[in-house]
Every structure is written in C-alpha cells, then in structure tokens.
Amino acid sequence: MAKTAKKAAKPAAKKAAQKPAKSAAADKGSKGFTSDEKAAMKERAQELKAEAKANASRAEGEKTLLAAIAAMPASDRAMAKRLHEIVSASAPALWPKTWYGMPAYTTGKDGKVLCFFQSAAKFKSRYATFGFNDVAKLDDGAMWPTAFALKELTSAAEAKIAALVKKAAG
C-alpha cells in the first residue's frame, strides 16, 4: 500500500511543478504595463516588422521619422524637426528611423541606434531628451554623459549637439 501512495504523490508533484510561478509583479499587486508602455511596445513591434519588410532603406526610415515628428505636439515637433536638420547635416552617413516611435539615427543597415530624441509630451516629462547609445564614440575617460535634457534649442545648444553627433558618428 505504501507503493501506491508514493505513485499517487508523484503525479501531483509533477502537476505542481508544471504550474507557472506567479511573477514578483503579480505578488505586489501590479496591474501590468501602463497604456503608454503598451503603446511603445506596439510601435516598436511595428518598426521591427517594417524593417524586416523593407530591409530598412534610408528613404523609408526618413519617411517614417518625418511622420512621427509630424504627429508630435507643436513644441516637441519644432524641436524634433530642428534636431533632424542638425543630425542630418552633422553626420550624413547616419540613417534616420523611428525607435519606440521616436526619431532616431542608426549607423546604417545594421540598425544600431547611435542617437535618439524623446519628446517631452510622450513621456509626460518637463523636458525632451536627446541621447546616445553605446555605439556612439563619445568615450571620455571613465565617465561621460549619454543623454541631455532639452527645454529649447538655442544656437549654443545646436552647436553642441552638432559637435557631439559628429564625434559620436566619428
């Protein structure tokens, strides 16, 4: 009879082991992703599909980038347009595209994002952000900035951004 009890206990143990464990977020009462986070993930999925279809051509990327800029609120749109002009003039070899629905510039067909713009309105922030990823050649000792807050584009800020983009694409 002891053997029968052991056999019965084994399937129950296997079933318990097969059930997925609750995530830490579920245990803390998390409601999952916000609607903004879900929208960003959907945008990114659409971008990846578009890249796979069109092999990420430069013209298609620019078309998508300009459409994303056009959809921004006026203050972010003006800044994003000007940044597009600055980046395009400073590093013409970079390819425009969108990244999580925001303007970004890659090192070419490899699709590695070198720099990007995040609108203030999309993230409900008091400032927009212009940033660089790890492929940017901005290394300066043991520590250097990789993102900058933008409230407005002054001529001094534009000159600094142009110089950083040139160096990053170097």
TrEMBL record:
This is DUF1801 domain-containing protein. Residues 1-56 are annotated as: Disordered. Residues 1-17 have a biased composition (Basic residues). The lineage of its organism: Bacteria, Pseudomonadati, Pseudomonadota, Gammaproteobacteria, Lysobacterales. Residues 28-52 have a biased composition (Basic and acidic residues). Residues 18-27 have a biased composition (Low complexity).
